[in-house]
Structures are given as C-alpha cells and as structure tokens.
Amino acid sequence: MHPLLTDDPGKKLLLLGNEAIVRGALEAGMAVAAAYPGTPSSEIGNNLFQLAQDERSGIYFQFSTNEKVAMEVAAAASAAGVRSLTCMKHVGMNVASDVLMTLAYVGCKGGMVIVTADDPSMHSSQNEQDNRLYAKFSNLPMLEPTSPQEAKEMTAYGFELSERLQVPVLLRTTTRTSHVRAAVELGPLPENRAKKGRFEKDPRRWVPVPAVARVRHKVLLDILTKAREEADRSGWNTVTGSGNVGIVASGTAACHVEDAIAELGCADRVKFLKLGFIYPHPTALFEKFLEGLDTVLVVEELEPFQEEALKVTAFEKGMDVKILGKATGHFPRLYEFQPLQVKRQVAAVAGVDMEKADLPDLSSIPELPLRPPTLCKGCPHRETYNVVKDALKELGQEENAIYPTDIGCYTLGLLPPIQMADYLLCMGSSVGTAAGFSISTDHKIVSFIGDSTFFHSGISSLANAVHNMHDFCLVILDNSTTAMTGHQPNPGISLTPPGYDRPRIPIIDMVKACGVEDIAVINPYKRSEALEAAKGVLAKKGVTAIIAEAPCVLYLKRVGGKK
Fold it and tell me: Torsion angle of alpha carbons 407, 411, 414, 420, nearest 10°?
C-alpha cells in the first residue's frame, strides 16, 4: 500500500512538501487530478500517478499532454461537482493561463486547487517568475505554506475555500517548500470519494460569450471582496511579538525570519506578520498591523508583491511608516534568500548587535571541481547529436548551422563537447523559432525537441511550419519517457511502466499528419545506418524530420531491468 494511503489519524509521516500536498488533497476528498510534470512540482504528479494505480485510493489521475489540457480536465471535473486538482511548475502556468483567466470568470462547483511551484534561483528553470502575480492577474485567492504540515492543511482548506467561494484556489510553493522534508501529522481519510458528479447545464454561467462574461466579471470581483474579508480574519495570517518595528514575510522567507528573531532574541522589539493567505491582500489586517509602527521590513523573495501592497495601505490610510524592502535596497529581486542574509537585515531594523560567527579555517581543503549537469553516460541523445553533427560535416553545412533547442535533458547539448544548442525560449519553441530563423537567415536550421515536449507544444508549430513552407530539419529525440522530470509517461511512449495500458500515439503518425513528407526514423546506436539516413533528410529543402528512437538508459533499466 502507498504510504500516503495510511489511514491512521494522528500518526506522523516524514513527507516532502509535495507529498504533503497530495495527502491534503486525499484528506479533502479530491477525486480527479491532472498534471504535466515540471520541477519543483513533479513529486505531486508522480505520487498521484502511483496512487491512481491502487483502487483503494479512489482517485483518477492523468499526465496530460501539457498544463493547459491538465487545467481543462480538472476544471470540467470541478464543474461537475467533483473535487479536483492540477499542479505545475511556475512556467507551466504560462501555458495554462489561457484557461485560468476565463476559468476565474466561470468559476467552479466542486472544490478546485491549482498548485503553482515557483523556482527562485532557477534550480531547474529558464526563469524565476513570481506567480503570486497570477493571483492578482486572475483575481483568484492564493495560499502559501511554510512547511509540509501547513502544505497538507492548506491544501485541504483550499478545497473548502474554493467550494465556498465557487472559484479555484491557487496554492503557491517554492522549491524549498516543495522539497523540504518534515514530520506531518495525518488526518482522517474520507470513506468514499465521488469520481462521478453531475453537470447542471447553465449557459449563462458556463459559456462565457461576451454577454455572459460581462456579468461573470462582476461576480468574480464580488467574490474577490469576500475573499479579502476571509484573508483579513484568516488563521493562516498571524501576528506575534511586539515593538515599533514590524516585519512581514511568507513562505520560506517567513521561516528565515522566525529563526532570525529567535536567534537574536528580539521578539520584544519586533512585531512579525506571517502571511499564509497571501492574496487578496488582507488590507484591514495590514492597517491594524501598521498602527504604532515606525518601520516595517518586508522579507519576500522575487517581486515586491506584499511590499507594494503595504505601501498602498499606508498611503491610503495616511500612516507615517517607513516600508523597507526591495525598493530601499534591503533585499534584491533576484534569487533565493539565505538565512544569514535575512538575519542581518532583521538585526539591523531591530537595533540588535549580531554576534560574528567564528568561521572554520578551510584553507587546507582544496577547492572542489565544478560539476555542471551533463547528459548521462550512454544517453542516446549523445549519439543523435554526434550523428547529426557528422552528417552536416559530410554535407559541408556544419559551420553554417543554427540549432534551436527545447526544454528537456537534451538542452544540455549546449555544453562541450556537443555544443549544439543555440537558442531557447520555452516548451515547444524549437519548432517556432526554427521557422523564424529559416525566413530571416541563410543558415542551415536544425532544431531539437524531445518526445514529451513535442506532444506538449510542438505539433501545432510543426503544422504552422509546413503550411507556411519553412525550411528546416526537426530532430525529435524520442527516448520513450519524460526523462528530466522523473520518467513520466507521454502519449508516444513504447516502453510503458507496469499497469499502464493506454494507447500509444506514434510520433511518426503525428509528423506525417502535419504534412511532413521527408522523414527518417533512426536508431542512433546503429551509427552507420543512422548517418546515411540523416544525410538523406538533411540534404533536402522544406520542413523535414529525423525521429531518433532509443530509450533513456536509466528508464530502460528501471522499467525493463536491462543494462
């Protein structure tokens, strides 16, 4: 039995923040979930995938082709009265935002929680956008936990809040809250969870043509007012300590502040507002908190989200209080915060002398060599890159080639000795940017995309390229899994995990359906055959494709037991 199905209220399990979110969803009676994998949210989908294989869980889960589709699946389940969840990394919300903005208007019936996992410092991402802004953009409530225990409880609360307000609730984590592990006390699991609901037709709500959308926008703003009242009195927003100096923080930054206050012994000098219900901004609570304060330090990673809201409150209420944060240079808008970095600023505003730590003498220890990420030993992508490079060399086109690339393991093709990654924007961009380079340069364009990424957002771009008669070769790296995020399935896999009996959609069929005629299917390990086939395709004009079929070596060993 999966540990997250442990039905022993009061028992404690050592859980990741992501695992705690899954447990909270189970305790809340969530029955339908869908996701596209993306770190730091991956463990949520992975655990839901495993749980769905066990009939005792009572849930349905799917890895969808992308985040937009996943949100649509969860939204429809919610409209039918079934509690649903979808999760994604921060940039995945960009893909799903087309759904999100209108979903906020039509709302939901069964509780719906949308998990967005942000990645300050870009541990595994191409940007570090702050998705708290999506809460403001969509006018939806947002919660942010500081620990796995809070992650579990907030998830369950999110379903209840969503059902009460009749809109989805956003749950924001960051890498540190997603991947920290701590003891989590379990609550009871429901005896039954309904995977089937009933959709009640109501075009004046569910079909947002302009006349309907105009009405629903007002409804959403009225709901936002109710959500703000809820935030003002929410137990997730707490005030501790006293003094004429205030500190405001949420998420991981709040943990650093709590530690700093405890270590400095300045709870009698500092009034600390820890936020968990982070949007709508609890303006009444802000006003009450600011009373009697001379200075407030806002500790938040990335954007000045709460800092600006506090400034607005202070200005509108005529309060003479200094708001310190990013605008004053106390904290940057870049990267994660370090505990010592936060402690220094807390000590400064609290007027407390910080003891200098005696750092150990490490002069005798040699510097560790750098270990940048790299393609695994035996990875088939290495062989595909070498085949394409040698084919271009024999055709006399290597020096003239541009290599748009995409999101996945193969992005590491940018590193020596391969160095075949020249331009990257987002999931699926290798196809669209290849089209752009083909019409704006005289270079030979060879782009690279993975199998999962192709299904995620490459197909429509490929159809566009064929229709508009562009000139490039698309190399599809089919390793039969979504490798970088933990070996999740996608529609094209031929090597399936145990019990996964869903139909396969061959990539070559999709490529042909988009209108590509010159296609080579190669096994990159069969070097001489692959080289000749690649040369034949690369020598041709128009949109061509090379499909390199060879499973991820780690996944093959994991699923097939082969070396």
Answer: -90
